[in-house]
Amino acid sequence: MKHVYTSIIPMRWGDMDAMGHVNNTVYFRYLEQARIEWYAFIGREKNAGMETVVVNAHCSFMVALTYPGEIEVRTYAGSPGRTSFEILQEIRRTDDPDTVYARGGARVVWVDRSTGKSSPLPDTVREMITA
Fold it and tell me: Which SUPFAM superfamilies match (predicted)?
Protein backbone atom coordinates (compact mmCIF):
# COMPACT_ATOMS: atom_id res chain seq x y z
CA MET A 1 0.00 0.00 0.00
CA LYS A 2 1.20 3.48 -0.83
CA HIS A 3 0.55 6.40 1.52
CA VAL A 4 -1.20 9.00 -0.65
CA TYR A 5 -2.78 11.55 1.69
CA THR A 6 -3.22 12.63 5.30
CA SER A 7 -6.27 14.56 6.49
CA ILE A 8 -6.73 16.36 9.81
CA ILE A 9 -10.34 16.42 11.02
CA PRO A 10 -11.62 17.97 14.27
CA MET A 11 -13.92 15.79 16.33
CA ARG A 12 -17.22 17.49 17.15
CA TRP A 13 -19.11 17.21 20.40
CA GLY A 14 -22.08 15.98 18.35
CA ASP A 15 -20.01 13.02 17.10
CA MET A 16 -20.35 11.43 20.55
CA ASP A 17 -23.01 8.91 21.52
CA ALA A 18 -24.68 8.03 24.82
CA MET A 19 -21.71 5.82 25.74
CA GLY A 20 -19.40 8.85 25.81
CA HIS A 21 -17.33 8.06 22.73
CA VAL A 22 -17.51 8.79 19.02
CA ASN A 23 -20.40 6.85 17.49
CA ASN A 24 -19.38 4.00 15.19
CA THR A 25 -21.20 5.50 12.21
CA VAL A 26 -19.17 8.70 12.47
CA TYR A 27 -15.96 6.80 11.77
CA PHE A 28 -17.32 6.12 8.27
CA ARG A 29 -17.89 9.87 7.85
CA TYR A 30 -14.28 10.55 8.86
CA LEU A 31 -13.06 7.99 6.32
CA GLU A 32 -15.32 9.46 3.65
CA GLN A 33 -14.16 13.02 4.36
CA ALA A 34 -10.51 12.02 4.04
CA ARG A 35 -11.23 10.09 0.82
CA ILE A 36 -13.02 13.10 -0.74
CA GLU A 37 -10.21 15.47 0.32
CA TRP A 38 -7.71 13.12 -1.33
CA TYR A 39 -9.76 13.09 -4.54
CA ALA A 40 -9.72 16.90 -4.58
CA PHE A 41 -5.98 16.88 -3.89
CA ILE A 42 -5.26 14.65 -6.91
CA GLY A 43 -7.51 16.77 -9.14
CA ARG A 44 -10.43 14.46 -9.77
CA GLU A 45 -12.12 17.29 -11.71
CA LYS A 46 -9.51 16.76 -14.46
CA ASN A 47 -11.41 13.58 -15.30
CA ALA A 48 -14.74 15.28 -16.00
CA GLY A 49 -17.67 12.93 -16.27
CA MET A 50 -15.96 10.26 -14.19
CA GLU A 51 -16.59 9.31 -10.56
CA THR A 52 -15.74 6.62 -8.10
CA VAL A 53 -18.42 4.44 -6.56
CA VAL A 54 -17.86 2.64 -3.27
CA VAL A 55 -18.65 -1.05 -3.69
CA ASN A 56 -17.46 -2.16 -0.26
CA ALA A 57 -16.68 -0.21 2.92
CA HIS A 58 -15.34 -1.49 6.23
CA CYS A 59 -14.05 -0.29 9.58
CA SER A 60 -12.45 -2.06 12.54
CA PHE A 61 -12.51 -0.20 15.85
CA MET A 62 -9.42 -0.59 18.04
CA VAL A 63 -9.61 2.19 20.66
CA ALA A 64 -12.58 4.46 21.38
CA LEU A 65 -12.24 8.08 20.29
CA THR A 66 -13.51 10.71 22.73
CA TYR A 67 -14.11 14.42 22.32
CA PRO A 68 -12.34 16.87 22.31
CA GLY A 69 -9.51 16.47 19.87
CA GLU A 70 -8.43 16.20 16.27
CA ILE A 71 -7.92 13.05 14.29
CA GLU A 72 -5.49 12.26 11.53
CA VAL A 73 -6.73 9.97 8.78
CA ARG A 74 -3.89 8.42 6.81
CA THR A 75 -5.03 7.20 3.41
CA TYR A 76 -3.27 4.46 1.46
CA ALA A 77 -4.02 3.26 -2.06
CA GLY A 78 -3.63 -0.36 -3.09
CA SER A 79 -2.67 -1.94 -6.36
CA PRO A 80 -5.08 -0.89 -9.07
CA GLY A 81 -7.17 -3.30 -11.07
CA ARG A 82 -8.63 -2.51 -14.47
CA THR A 83 -11.47 -0.35 -13.11
CA SER A 84 -11.05 -0.37 -9.34
CA PHE A 85 -8.63 -0.03 -6.47
CA GLU A 86 -8.58 -0.50 -2.72
CA ILE A 87 -8.30 2.41 -0.30
CA LEU A 88 -7.12 1.62 3.21
CA GLN A 89 -7.16 4.18 6.01
CA GLU A 90 -5.96 4.54 9.58
CA ILE A 91 -7.50 6.87 12.15
CA ARG A 92 -5.19 8.27 14.82
CA ARG A 93 -5.46 11.18 17.25
CA THR A 94 -3.10 14.06 16.46
CA ASP A 95 -2.10 14.11 20.15
CA ASP A 96 -1.43 10.33 20.11
CA PRO A 97 -0.09 9.61 16.59
CA ASP A 98 1.46 6.26 17.49
CA THR A 99 -1.88 4.64 18.36
CA VAL A 100 -4.21 3.40 15.62
CA TYR A 101 -7.76 4.00 16.85
CA ALA A 102 -9.44 2.45 13.81
CA ARG A 103 -8.64 0.92 10.43
CA GLY A 104 -11.01 1.06 7.53
CA GLY A 105 -11.36 1.72 3.87
CA ALA A 106 -13.24 0.98 0.72
CA ARG A 107 -12.99 -0.65 -2.68
CA VAL A 108 -13.89 1.94 -5.28
CA VAL A 109 -14.78 1.48 -8.92
CA TRP A 110 -14.15 4.16 -11.55
CA VAL A 111 -17.46 4.91 -13.29
CA ASP A 112 -18.46 6.87 -16.39
CA ARG A 113 -21.33 9.07 -15.16
CA SER A 114 -22.98 9.24 -18.59
CA THR A 115 -23.37 5.46 -18.87
CA GLY A 116 -23.33 4.45 -15.19
CA LYS A 117 -20.88 1.68 -16.10
CA SER A 118 -17.39 0.94 -14.85
CA SER A 119 -14.56 2.44 -16.84
CA PRO A 120 -10.81 1.81 -16.94
CA LEU A 121 -8.83 3.84 -14.42
CA PRO A 122 -7.29 6.94 -16.03
CA ASP A 123 -3.54 6.61 -16.58
CA THR A 124 -2.92 9.62 -14.31
CA VAL A 125 -4.69 7.89 -11.40
CA ARG A 126 -3.02 4.55 -12.09
CA GLU A 127 0.43 6.19 -12.19
CA MET A 128 -0.20 8.12 -8.98
CA ILE A 129 -1.23 4.97 -7.14
CA THR A 130 1.66 2.84 -8.39
CA ALA A 131 4.46 5.48 -8.45
Answer: Thioesterase/thiol ester dehydrase-isomerase
Strand ranges inside 12-69, DSSP E: 50-61
Neighbour tally for 127: CB within 10 Å = 11
Burial of 21 (0-12, 13-18, 19+ CB in 10 A): middle
Tens of pLDDT along 33-80?
999 999 888 776 666 667 889 999 999 999 999 999 999 999 999 989
| Domain CATH number, residue 118 | 3.10.129.10
pTM: 0.91
pLDDT at 32 over 70: yes
Count of domains observed in the chain:
1
